[in-house]
Specification:
Strand content: 15-25%
Largest sheet: 4 strands, mixed
Strand order of the largest sheet: 1-2-5-4
Shape: rod-shaped
Number of helices: 4
Structural class: alpha+beta
Oligomer: single chain
Length: about 130
């Protein structure tokens, strides 16, 4: 069973703290006692979180209170070009740069193709916003 919070606390936590995860009231309103409701407490219910790709981020929408329940939903956004640049840079350093050094040493078509393939994989994993 998730926690139950007063309406004021739900909104205060959401607006005063970034990326605050509100507690889940797992069974919806079932089992929600009248005493809590009369004291101003409400259940918090999350929608299922969507899956995100490495180039995306999950953003929590503003909670909506309806029928005595606080509903929290999510949206998926594309990471900024700056974030994508940093992710690509780290991936190049750890994954493709060693292959490039091998190609510089060997100068074989096989090593060149391996390095270029890894670069393309990284670009596909972290595409820029269009």
């Amino acid at each position: 069973m998730g926690q139950i919070l007063p309406k004021e606390v739900v909104f205060q936590k959401f607006f005063s703290e970034n990326n605050t995860a509100l507690p889940i009231f797992e069974n919806g309103v079932v089992g929600f006692e009248e005493a809590y409701a009369s004291a101003g407490y409400i259940p918090v219910q999350y929608e299922e979180k969507p899956e995100v790709a490495p180039y995306q981020k999950l953003v929590e929408n503003e909670p909506v209170i309806a029928d005595g329940v606080c509903y929290v939903s999510f949206r998926v956004e594309h990471k900024s070009d700056e974030e994508i640049f940093r992710l690509r840079q780290r991936a190049y350093q750890s994954e493709s740069d060693p292959l490039y050094m091998e190609w510089l040493y060997d100068q074989t078509d096989e090593k060149y193709a391996e390095w270029k393939s890894r670069v393309q994989q990284i670009k596909a994993r972290y595409p820029k916003k269009n």
